[in-house]
Amino acid sequence: MRGLQISLNQTQKIRFDRALEKIESLSSKSNSNATVTVADSIPVNFEDGVLKGHGTSERDGEVVATLCGVVERVNKLVYVRTLRARYKPETGDIIVGRVIEIAPKRWRLEINYSQDAVLMLSSMNLPDGVQRRWTAVDELNMRSIFEENDIVCAEVRGFQHDGSLHLQARSQKYGKLERGQLLTVPPYLVKRRKQHFLQLEKYGIDLVLGCNGFIWVGEHVEAMDNIVKDLVSKSEQQSSVTTLNEQKHHQSPLETRQNICRTANAVRVLSALGFNISIEVITQTVELSSSLNIDIHDMLGAEFYVLVAEAEAERRSLLTKKK
Amino acid sequence: MVGLSLGEKHFIQGGIAQDLRSDGRKRLSYRPIYVETGVIPQANGSARVKMGATEVIASVKAELGKPTSLHPDKGKVAIFVDCSPTAAPAFELFGSASAERDWLLVAAEYKTLEAVSSSTASEGSGYGCEYTAPFKMCFSFSIQSNKADGHTRGPANGGFNNAAHAPCLCFRATTYGILPDVSIWSLSAPQASNSRTRSVNPISCHMESICSTSKQTAICCSIFISYGRGGEELSAELSTSLQRCLLGGKSGAGAGIDLSSLSVVEGKMCWDLYIDGLVVCSDGNLLDALGAAIKAALTNTGIPRVQVAAGATGDEQPEVDISDEEFLQFDTSGVPVIITLTKVGKHYIVDATAEEESQMSSAISVSVNRHGHICGMTKRGGAGLDPSVILDMISVAKHVSEQLIIKLDSEIAAAEAREEE
Q: Cβ of A162: how many Cβ atoms within 10 Å?
């Protein structure tokens, strides 16, 4: 939590500091030996023949850290992993990106990484669900699938030999995201979990936690099978003419919109406080705010920050007690 | 400013229509305001104001100078605003001196001049021609990167699809003779560059206009590529708006800052205040934040006490003794606050974020003082406004200003108390 600048009055400051101290005391019990700062020497068994990785350097025969972080050892490799690193993609990550360019047979997406990711046309399902090869006509109609500035959810397929990042969106749950808002949080707050697509049925909203720090909060859209969608749309076309126009001007109902804003504000508060963002914490924060009847905009005020910090301290102490 | 997808734009517009914006605010509520005073110790007064993600710093320096002959009993105030390149990528990209040479007009084609209704057509030569009836005029031109290596400036593979990096294309059409009754220019979106070869291809635009006139009109059109030096244009616009809002008209009437309190010796010596604003981080609503920062900085300003040596006669400059210890606080009860109302669709919002500002049709900034009097007004944005709408927006602004003045005063007082600790 860098530079949290909200005006807290005296009592709020005391409560806030107390909550943060409690959290720190709970977490620092585990592997405090592994953290290093710049110029700390790393204990290494030299007989094994150690490989010096990122964040280390040799000085006077000793392996010395050049970054502040945690020492990781993999077989003979020793490296220092920073805590607030830039997003580092791994195969299988779910990410949310924004299309910035349409190139021949591919889309280029911006994903908060040092380079842009590429979504090949061949890594996408055809819109009508038919399994066939993409033809030149399909290539000319790429813009009808994703346009510039569209928000797309995809999975990392892997790195190519030239270092560029490739994505794939072959499943139903991937694709264009509409009817909601995109939030940007520091990528190190989103840890890799089993579930990144979360559907909060109680509120009727969809939540996509991209590992790259882009989080999508939007109205729940049924991910229909393409064949079913085709049949439905054909029958609808016979009855009404402008299905497409209606879809474009669809307005989210007020109830859903309130839930979307509440969840988005919960994510904003958590990211400002520097807590890891996961589904449990988000639902807990949203329930806290609605149980105390806090106005949606007041969630960004000083009092709610303190409440969230205290609630997080409680939750972590309960977790450690369970262990 | 990154672009927004169509879904996001609809979401923002729908939210404003339903009185629930993206962060849960109502249409007329402000983001949390955080004020810090005394951030620049060398200045006479300074303040930093954060409204959400927008962050600005204002500083006030006072120097002794000579008053103008038009107003011998008043001091002088000058306001300058600078947009730091760290505030937004657009501010930095076009700031360098070589920017103007980077773009080259490749082709300008005066395409067609068609009669909308049947009438005598006349041959057009070059860009000008004469017409007597409603006509439609089409223009197309292309610009291309002029850099030696053929790469466009900007993101490596962005070309022009990122609106923040496109140059501002400005098209001027001057008409000689009787002005046409209706003239609407519509600019069709530039075609996406084929980025197989990293945007060496020119970008072309096609513009159409339908003019109707019943008299003879000669139309002479010039293409003027105004290369938006993003940061400098915005800085100049903010400076003039602030001057208009805080200093009143040319005769000094309606000034928010009382200039006669700055006079030392009438006709010979006065205080010159130089107010500088710096935009550190831009997330919409810069004018309001700058207005609040200037108000806070002026509250924080201490003008040294001046002892004038007696017995100065005629044109001699009187001797003055500037005290280092004693400071007079500047009286800021009359300084107005600036409220910007942004019109999106049919509704007005206050304190728009950068995303909401990208959807605006027009915006009005009104400066209102403690007594509810209007000290200045600026209109921005391309769409026109009906006068009744403007009057409505002014009354809304006055209503909002009451709460904002109270909030701002309490924040400034809290900041001063914090500074003293």
A: 5
